[in-house]
Amino acid sequence: xxxxxxxxxxxxxxxxxxxxxxxxxxxxxxxxxxxxxxxxxxxxxxxxxxxxxxxxxxxxxxxxxxxxxxxxxxxxxxxxxxxxxxxxxxxxxxxxxxxxxxxxxxxxxxxxxxxxxxxxxxxxxxxxxxxxxxxxxxxxxxxxxxxxxxxxxxxxxxxxxxxxxxxxxxxxxxxxxxxxxxxxxxxxxxxxxxxxxxxxxxxxxxxxxxxxxxxxxxxxxxxxxxxxxxxxxxxxxxxxxxxxxxxxxxxxxxxxxxxxxxxxxxxxxxxxxxxxxxxxxxxxxxxxxxxxxxxxxxxxxxxxxxxxxxxxxxxxxxxxxxxxxxxxxxxxxxxxxxxxxxxxxxxxxxxxxxxxxxxxxxxxxxxxxxxxxxxxxxxxxxxxxxxxxxxxxx
Length: 394
Prior knowledge:
alpha+beta, 3-stranded antiparallel sheet
């Protein structure tokens, strides 16, 4: 996201993007585009959203529990399956799955056998007697059982239709992966897997303190400087000092050339994009404050009366800085991209160039989303509204 791409994105660019991040978090809220599509749009620019589902069906990517529910590349899925098989999880999905297996062993086995004999199923293939509201505990029993088998690894997601999961036996999904699934990965020692996830986290984060590393893949226990010392000795990690940070920072050796450019002041950010609330750039609030002086929380899970900025708030990345946020909603039937409210950070002094590039970023996102008409609500500061509207009229 340093600079906008100069070429049109390809399917391979989408796969490379997921591989660079190591995972792509899945979230189903779609007041704008669903999160995984927005995360990719911030990095690839305009691309067909169908590419993500096509990659899943073709076996180029797979779904698993990682940071949360995530897409990962086919080459990485074995690492996650091996880790979960060897580690004692405390994640809520595993807890609910264990309760489901304990409470309904016969029904769950019958469901698994149905998939084995009859092929892939979706939750909507099963009727429910009552109407639930939301959450795991509100799902109909078959949905809970499908998710329990998915969490424990017996089922995987073979494809999605209208973003709805279609489950199949893990062995059949693994058989279609491209590149082919390497079963030898499943025998990797836990220590080697943890080291791999630590290195992958540092590579994905770019520059990081030790205390931010574990959250990327939800590693436990937390990673500390002592654990990283051997990786410095082998040269797999590089230690750097960052102005204003009391703790040392770490960079993966693959980024040595970029690190040198940063030291020389030759990394020039020119990109302006809107970020998903579930973008890996903003997962860790402590890291976000220290790196960007930006305080952010996802308010879609907060009661309306307690929200400070709005329901689905997109942070604004402008030339390497997080300068503000906007509360957005896509009205697909009307072709309208509504910006209910737009807030610049109090310390940001908007220039004409900043506002023009922000207006273009909003316009690009709206056009990609097939909601090209932009409706702008209140702004802070108020004066920027007229500049943004003028850009869209022009």
